[in-house]
Amino acid sequence: MSAKSPAQQPSSTTAATVAEETRAVVQEFLTARLAGDTERLVELFADKVDWLLAENPGVPWIRPRSTGAECAAQFTDLAQYTVAEDSRASLDAFLVDGTDAVLMGRLSGTVRATGKSFEGPFALRLTVEEGRIVRHHLYENSLSIAEACAP
Question: Is the distance from CB of 55 to CB of 62 less than 8 angstroms?
């Protein structure tokens, strides 16, 4: 662990401004996500994104992604394979520290092809730089989702 000298410490005003900007971008992300606004999602994601969502070969919407357009398309893919009226998400925590935001809650849905449901907790870590999302790491109940996709 290293300590920064006072000259290297960001001012509290600067740190607060960065956190406010992060919170605003994440709120825009959530609004666009709920509205299914893929165009806005493409704008919010950086050109290159550090995307992490555990690979799950039995789940058609879960695959590696790295560009803003690919990341935004995940939400379109999810809508294609799940029943919209059965999709639910609740947010229990929205924490911001500088350029990082962590959202925690629960999600559930139904896979269109099988009619089976999935549910469980999730944690989403987003990093915002220069007004765009550069990191999207989602941790979810992948076993429940895989089981719901299995015939």
Answer: yes
Burial of 144 (0-12, 13-18, 19+ CB in 10 A): middle
- Cα pseudo-dihedral 114, 57, 89, 80, rounded to 10: -60
Closest CA to 51 of 139, 136, 142: 136
State the DSSP string of 74-119: HHHHHHHHB-GGG-EEEEEEEEEETTEEEEEEEEEEEBTTT--EEE
CA–CA distance from 86 to each of 2, 109, 110, 114 (Å)?
Answer: 49, 5, 6, 13
How far, in whole angstroms, is CA 35 from its chain's centroid? 15
- Provide the token pair at 44: 């919010």
Residue type, 127: T
Contact 149, 60 (CB under 8 A): yes
Whether the pLDDT of residue 55 is over 50: the answer is yes
Task: Tell me the average pLDDT of the chain.
Answer: 91
> Which is nearest to 52 in space by CA: 61, 67, 65?
65
